[in-house]
Specification:
With 403 residues, the chain is α+β, with helices and mostly antiparallel strands. It folds into two domains: 169 residues, Acetylcholine Binding Protein, Chain: A; 205 residues. Helices cover 40% and strands 24% of the residues. The chain is built from seven helices and eleven strands. The strands form two sheets. Strands 1, 2, 3, 5, 6, 8 and 11 form a seven-stranded mixed beta sheet that branches. It has a four-stranded antiparallel beta sheet with strand order 4-7-10-9, with no helix packed on it. The radius of gyration is 39 Å and the shape is rod-shaped. The N and C termini lie close together (10 Å).
Length: 403
Amino acid sequence: MHVELDNKKNTMSVNTWVRMSWNDEKLKWDPKDYGGVKEVSVSIHEIWQPDLYLYNSAVYGVENYESRHCIVRQDGEVTWVAPTVFHSYCEFNYVLWPFETNTCVLNIGSWTHNGYEIDIRLQEAGFDLHYYSAGEWKVKNVTAHRRVKVYSCCAEPYIVLDYEIKMTRSSELYYHVIFVASIPIISLILVTFWLRPQSEMKLLLNICAVTIDILFLLYFGYKVPARINNLPLIVRFFSGCLCQMSVSIIVSAFVIHVSSSSFDIPIPRRIRNQLYGKLGRYLGLRNVIREIESQKLAEFEEIHDNPSPNLGTSDLSISGLDNGDQQCIISQSRNVKRLEWILLATAVDRFFFILFCSIFSILAIAYVRVGSDAFSKSFNIMNISPSSASENITGIDFFEGSV
């Protein structure tokens, strides 16, 4: 047996052998009358055969079963093993793509005969997986049950065999291509907040991350159908990363502008007090604060070492200094203001680093919870044995089928 799923068409293809057996009163004979022959091989088109059809077939106008010979025994027992390929419609669950588990159903029954004419029964509870051929999809379990359906148009019952096939995708390649690649994307986003505020490498790394993310979204658009009700979590994650990258680019441009421009005005006092207080300690700004304090100390010492001759030692002013000393002190004062703006830019970087780490953590927890719920629901599959279908309909012709 071999199973293939077509995500674009929402179809499942099952290449398998169908074993059917029934009893035909017209094919009984006495072996003594025919030289001891107890069984013969005949063409299936030379005898009666049940008109079993795949109700949810995705391909019409095609014979479900290949023309192979069948075995007829002396007691009228007919055994027919027919190679076939079933093409059925299947509703896929893309929430956990590409690690999803899908359950598809084959609905098989007679096309023209009701339950009073043909009594279809199960020989086995599902497929024989001894000869299973593993492809992209791994068949985890196959269950089957027999049900009797009565349509509103007709009083006669119709028997349907339902085969439920549970499959998981062999997704090791997707793991290495998608999930491992998401690690450097997240790293590129976060590392930009630890570069020097004046570094233009921030924008370059953000552009690289945006390019990689867009390429992955284009790849997802090629692999996943456009019209689906359940968007994959991985697509939501990469879309969220793209939005965060857009914010990161804006923040990086602001930080570079603030830290590289020459501002003659100091930062607002309230903001300065917060940065020099607990907020600065929480954001790890001590090194920048020490540098600012050292610049302020140098400015104070410059003024203190060159006091005005017309003023007392306690009255410090730069008006009595020569032009060279005045320019030096003014330059140091501007440098202090510039460092304070760099301090503000660094604080913005650290704040968004913590914010983005929190967002990534929340998204990871949310996706794990949603993924685990979807994963548990995908395993909630009916497991009905043939004995549980206790309907007993006496038909004219008896048929037993197993897929």
